[in-house]
């Protein structure tokens, strides 16, 4: 039995993501949770002729506990999206609390589930989940993933566009490392499975890198106040979830970039730290998946000087984002203890 749960399932990402998970033959149960509308979304999806049994829950009557009971994989797209002029960090104030509460539910109900965090700012929300799990003594770094797949999907599409053949976009593989916001998004185009033409000018390369880094802004601008990427994110989230499920079923050799705790692989993390010149508690790199989650964090490998400059620019921003997430949980614990001191 494989129960997939979506937290934030009635939202712009949640609904199409739930649809794609309902269509995934590896999913036998689909649990949907949101603060609104999940009964309707669940009723709608339940008429689709695929095996997954669908149930929708709301917060009253222990809805979060019920939806998480027996979950194998939990995907979190709950929270507010950006409007034009906002950065992902501007979402922290609202989304940090939402993610913390949902993580508490997971830690106390299904701590062994694979947790896939979509809610922004991912660079900080993933550390929040880790800290909550630590607080409950259930943190397994191999099972926690920040979903950066949309950056990978964008890189594949944009490179295929440059190559003048969109039919290649499914085949083009470009590792995108670092994190998931602006300069922390580092596409390693020199490692693209489909190299760019040798005539490709430096300015064109810079434009391409910038488009991958700020692809989210392109969508936010086009939606003009109606939110950020939802459909492409649902596609990316479902692709990533599917890779986890295939790896858990025993498929070998699945390697995909994801923002993970470096504690998931001590050896891989040591090599990465050497490359970065400092340790970061979380980093997105190519990650090999297995039945228990992260098997190996791959080093960056051979990259160009220009890519090294991008990595350097990402590091301080990432370090700050990680610290913000960790401090948020520490402060929340302190505040709770001040309210109810331990005897
Ligand atoms: N990681 C990525 O690449 C990526 C890509 C796109 C969007 N995002 C992020 O995903 C998040 C969701 O985006 P969206 O466009 O789907 O937003 P949305 O507003 O359309 O949907 C969010 C849903 O979360 C629900 N929600 C709010 N508080 C909740 C709670 N406590 N418990 C459960 N559900 C709750 C809302 O009711 C809503 O249905 C945003 O933070 C956005 O920035 C991340
Ligand atoms: O840009 C956003 O705020 C949403 C998402 O992180 C994206 O990359 O599209």
From TrEMBL:
It catalyses: (S)-malate + NAD(+) = oxaloacetate + NADH + H(+). Its EC number is 1.1.1.37. SUPFAM superfamilies: LDH C-terminal domain-like, NAD(P)-binding Rossmann-fold domains. This is Malate dehydrogenase. The active site is at residue 180. Belongs to the LDH/MDH superfamily. MDH type 1 family. Residues 148-328 form the Lactate/malate dehydrogenase C-terminal domain. It holds the Pfam family Ldh_1_N. InterPro entries: L-lactate/malate_DH (IPR001557), Lactate/malate_DH_C (IPR022383), Lactate/malate_DH_N (IPR001236), Lactate_DH/Glyco_Ohase_4_C (IPR015955), Malate_DH_AS (IPR001252), Malate_DH_type1 (IPR010097), NAD(P)-bd_dom_sf (IPR036291).
């Amino acid at each position: 039995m494989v129960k997939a749960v979506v937290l934030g399932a009635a939202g712009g990402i949640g609904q199409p993501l739930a649809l794609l998970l309902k269509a995934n033959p590896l999913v036998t149960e689909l649990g949907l949770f949101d603060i609104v509308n999940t009964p309707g979304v669940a009723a709608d999806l339940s008429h689709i002729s695929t095996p997954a049994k669908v149930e929708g829950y709301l917060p009253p009557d222990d809805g979060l506990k019920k939806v998480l009971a027996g979950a194998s994989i939990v995907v979190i797209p709950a929270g507010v999206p950006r409007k034009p002029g906002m950065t992902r960090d501007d979402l922290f104030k609202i989304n940090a609390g939402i993610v913390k509460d949902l993580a508490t539910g997971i830690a106390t109900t299904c701590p062994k589930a694979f947790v896939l965090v979509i809610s922004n700012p991912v660079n900080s929300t993933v550390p929040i989940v880790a800290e909550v799990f630590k607080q409950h003594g259930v943190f397994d770094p191999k099972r926690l993933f920040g979903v950066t797949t949309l950056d990978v999907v964008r890189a594949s599409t944009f490179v295929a566009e440059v190559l003048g053949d969109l039919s290649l976009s499914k085949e083009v593989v470009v590792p995108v490392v670092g994190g998931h916001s602006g300069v922390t998004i580092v596409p390693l185009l020199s490692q693209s499975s489909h190299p760019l033409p040798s005539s490709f000018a430096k300015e064109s390369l810079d434009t391409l890198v910038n488009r991958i880094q700020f692809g989210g802004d392109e969508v936010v601008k086009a939606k003009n106040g109606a939110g950020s990427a939802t459909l492409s994110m649902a596609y990316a989230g479902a692709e990533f979830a599917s890779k986890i499920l295939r790896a858990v079923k025993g498929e070998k050799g699945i390697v995909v970039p994801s923002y993970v705790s470096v504690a998931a692989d001590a050896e891989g993390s040591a090599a990465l730290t050497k490359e970065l010149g400092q340790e970061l508690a979380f980093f997105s790199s190519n990650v090999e998946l297995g039945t228990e989650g992260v098997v190996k964090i791959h080093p960056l490998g051979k990259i160009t000087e220009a890519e090294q400059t991008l990595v350097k620019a990402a590091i301080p921003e990432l370090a700050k984002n990680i610290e913000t997430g960790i401090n948020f949980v520490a402060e929340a614990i302190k505040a709770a203890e001040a309210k109810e001191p331990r005897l």
